[in-house]
Specification:
The protein is mainly alpha-helical and about 210 residues long. About 65% of the residues lie in helices and about 0% in strands. The longest helix has 23 residues.
Length: about 210
């Protein structure tokens, strides 16, 4: 992902303290500080945010869409939207929650576009599937590698077949490690609702993958 650099603009110091939820981690504070500089027109701060979060954004989109190529395009759109929305940015939530909300909205738009054009979600990209394999001291036999690949394809296909909210919740919880509270903000719902969504998603995945779990 490449955003052209321009001349750096002078950064402005934030006039208000971030909300308490933003002070959970040093990384969260850094993100807010960078985004407030972006709000002031600082392109270098924007590029720092892109470098820090592009892997997470693209990876999340890839798992929800099942296509690495489409995920790269979504990643570009996400950060273009971050830049265009910077003037209206207010640090009322964790930056990553705001970022994943943008990602979720754009992914949902792509899913709806696919449905309108009768496109079926792509199979998992070979490189993406490889990220989920566990390394061992001994190289697995070809038959074992085949079984691993088959299982990963089945997992990716099962996730891709979930309803939109269930898919987002599973990906954010399982792969991004996002807490229930932040997932609730991304999905614009309550924590109990998120737990219910995840329960249904896991039950559905267990049913779809039953033959691999027996």
């Amino acid at each position: 992902m490449n955003f052209a650099a321009g001349g750096s603009a002078s950064s402005q110091k934030n006039q208000s303290e971030p909300s308490r939820s933003l002070e959970d981690t040093e990384g969260g504070q850094d993100d807010v500080a960078l985004m407030l500089r972006v709000k002031a027109g600082d392109l270098e701060a924007f590029e720092a945010l892109v470098t820090r979060h592009q892997h997470s954004v693209v990876g999340t989109a890839a798992k929800m869409l099942g296509s690495a190529a489409d995920a790269e395009d979504i990643g570009q759109q996400v950060f273009v939207r971050v830049w265009k929305s910077a003037a209206r940015y207010e640090p009322t939530a964790k930056f990553t929650t705001w970022l994943m909300t943008i990602t979720r909205n754009l992914v949902f738009n792509e899913m709806r576009r696919r449905r309108r054009t009768h496109l079926v979600p792509m199979e998992a990209d070979q490189d993406d599937a490889g990220q989920h394999q566990f390394a061992d001291g001994e190289a697995p036999a070809p038959s074992e590698r085949l079984l691993d690949a088959e299982l990963q394809e089945a997992i990716d296909a099962a996730i891709a077949g979930l309803p939109e909210n269930q898919r987002v919740a599973i990906v954010l919880r399982r792969y991004e490690g996002m807490p229930y509270e932040e997932i609730a903000k991304v999905l614009k719902t309550s924590v109990p609702a998120v737990k219910s969504i995840l329960f249904r998603a896991r039950s559905e995945l267990k049913e779809r993958l039953k033959r691999y779990l027996e």
